[in-house]
Design brief:
This protein is mostly helical and about 80 residues long. The chain is elongated.
Length: about 80
């Protein structure tokens, strides 16, 4: 590949990636507009996200909780 072709390849690749992203985004937006389910208000969406975040944080805090100390053994000790 010549230097001229190489210098043109990256902008073309970037342009193709940008166009592909724009097509994907347009399809996602159209799917959302065509969705027959009722829309959520901002308050409902934020409440749902807060509940989900709280649940994840709660599970995460349980995973990081220190283990309970072991109970003392009642087995006789060797002397």
């Amino acid at each position: 590949m010549s230097h001229r072709n190489a210098s043109q390849a990256e902008p073309m690749r970037t342009g193709h990636q940008s166009a592909a992203h724009n097509r994907w985004l347009a399809a996602e937006i159209q799917d959302a507009l065509d969705d027959p389910r009722p829309s959520l208000s901002l308050e409902e969406a934020m409440a749902a996200m807060e509940a989900e975040i709280d649940a994840v944080e709660h599970r995460s805090s349980i995973d990081r909780a220190p283990a309970e100390p072991p109970l003392p053994s009642k087995a006789p000790r060797r002397q």
